[in-house]
Design a protein that fits this description.
This protein has helices spanning 96-104, 177-186, 188-191, 213-226, and strands at 15-19, 23-27, 38-42, 75-83, 90-93, 136-138, 150-155, 162-167, 173-174, 205-206. It is flat, with a radius of gyration of 17 Å. The protein has four helices and ten strands. The chain has one domain (15-222). Strands 1, 4, 5, 7, 8 and 9 form a six-stranded antiparallel beta sheet that branches. The protein has a four-stranded antiparallel beta sheet with strand order 2-3-6-10, with no helix packed on it.
């Protein structure tokens, strides 16, 4: 899917992740968009602040309760989830590798509860989308990270954006396709097994209605000062 606003339509499904800063992929592996599928990431901890959002088909992500103790730091993904294309319930995905495998062909190969071992649409959801967690919706059909490489997502301390970068086999961190290209040129042995199109720096969309109230208040104050 493409990044956009979360759709409330029951006719779409998502896949998502859970991070310490709570992030999830979007419908169709995308941001909150009125599309057929999505992925997301979120944090394991929750806000414990507001009532759940009703009739919302998206991926959840939550912010650590003690976020205020380290405002300058960023949070990374801690959980992954996907939304069933039939019952629209959220199912947790065990690993980033499995999550990316689902995401890479989500549009052409929709995900259903039956694809998870010993699970059916009759079972309760593994997790609910509500604002007790901060959610980040991811785009669908993004390339799976090549073996030996690692993709990282971190949520900025002010929850303004989720940044993506890759850790190369050498330990080098790259944040742009230009840097990937330079790395492959300097390391021919990797350039022979992976290509530039295997990397994508598209960032998931942080769902504003799930951002902690403390962060929302700080953001509003900042805007007032600027004006």
């Amino acid at each position: 899917m493409r990044p956009c606003e979360i759709s409330k339509s029951p006719k779409s499904h998502y896949t998502g992740l859970h991070a310490k800063a709570h992030v999830h992929p979007f419908k169709s592996c995308c941001f909150r968009i009125p599309s057929p599928k999505a992925i997301a990431a979120t944090s394991m901890e929750s806000h414990n602040r507001r009532e759940p959002v009703e009739e919302r088909a998206m991926v959840p992500s939550s912010t650590p309760r003690q976020w205020h103790k380290s405002r300058s730091s960023t949070s990374s993904i801690s959980m992954y989830s996907v939304q069933c294309g039939k019952c629209f319930k959220w199912r947790l995905i065990s690993t980033q590798e499995e999550y990316e495998e689902i995401r890479k062909n989500l549009t052409d190969d929709p995900w259903f509860c039956s694809k998870k071992s010993n699970v059916s649409c009759e079972d309760p959801a593994d997790i609910e989308y509500d604002n007790t967690r901060t959610w980040v919706i991811d785009k669908p059909n993004l390339p799976k990270t090549p073996d030996g490489f690692k993709k990282k997502l971190v949520v900025r301390s002010d929850f303004s954006k989720c940044d993506a970068y890759y850790l190369m086999p050498t330990g080098q961190k790259v944040r742009t396709l230009n840097e990937v290209e330079q790395f492959l040129a300097a390391n021919p042995k990797y350039g022979s097994v992976v290509k530039l199109s295997d990397f994508n720096f598209t960032s998931p969309k942080i769902m504003e209605d799930t951002v902690p109230e403390e962060i929302e208040g700080r953001a509003s104050s900042s805007k007032k000062v600027k004006t």
